[in-house]
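4.2 Preliminary Data

To establish feasibility before requesting continued support, the project team ran the inverse folding procedure on a target of 206 residues. The structure was first converted into the token representation described in Section 3, and no sequence information of any kind was made available to the design step. The complete token record follows.
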């Protein structure tokens, strides 16, 4: 029996795990996020060890602009909220509202990336280039790696929205939306740690 995407249609409760395939996708994705936590943990450890290694370059205290970073943080955290609204629409079987909130999430993600690019350009003009110091290298590796994850999430969600025009919302497509939402929450949580460890502590100084 085909599963339709209309509100109040045939979607079962928690459609993302209504089938064995869906359960396996969600479980596999949690394992993937575990690996990602290890990766980011290593990058954080490297940054903390190297953040004061600035023999011939500007320090974070000198160049970080917390107003821009705070705006970026607000945008990304807001996108986490909109993705929650999307998941709520998913559980109601409402494809229209699901895509609406996911599109808003994508737009906010693009806004975050735009601010991050602007921030990086500013730092380069201040002499804070990748090879300038161990601090610069560890900073761009950690923050840039997170930015790449945001860009991937934007692309992933955009493709889901586009493909839903043809495929609709079913027990096959619902898990894809659900794990995309999990992924988005993950990169938001990582950013909270980056904001605290990299920017706030960096602005305070050693």
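Position-by-position output of the design step:
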């Amino acid at each position: 029996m085909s599963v339709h995407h209309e509100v109040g249609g045939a979607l079962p409760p928690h459609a993302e795990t209504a089938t064995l395939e869906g359960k396996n996708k969600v479980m596999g994705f949690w394992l993937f996020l575990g690996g990602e936590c290890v990766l980011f943990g290593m990058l954080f450890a490297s940054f903390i060890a190297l953040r004061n290694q600035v023999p011939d370059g500007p320090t974070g205290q000198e160049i970080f602009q917390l107003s821009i970073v705070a705006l970026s943080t607000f945008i990304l955290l807001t996108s986490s909220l909109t993705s929650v609204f999307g998941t709520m629409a998913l559980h109601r079987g409402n494809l229209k509202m699901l895509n609406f909130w996911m599109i808003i999430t994508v737009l906010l993600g693009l806004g975050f990336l735009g601010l991050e690019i602007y921030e990086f350009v500013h730092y380069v003009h201040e002499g804070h280039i990748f090879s300038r110091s161990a601090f610069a290298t560890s900073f761009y590796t950690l923050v840039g790696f997170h930015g790449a994850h945001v860009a991937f999430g934007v692309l992933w969600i955009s493709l889901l929205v586009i493909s839903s025009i043809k495929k609709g919302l079913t027990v096959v497509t619902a898990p894809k939306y659900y794990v995309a939402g999990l992924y988005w929450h993950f990169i938001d949580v990582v950013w909270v740690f980056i904001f605290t460890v990299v920017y706030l502590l960096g602005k305070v100084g050693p």
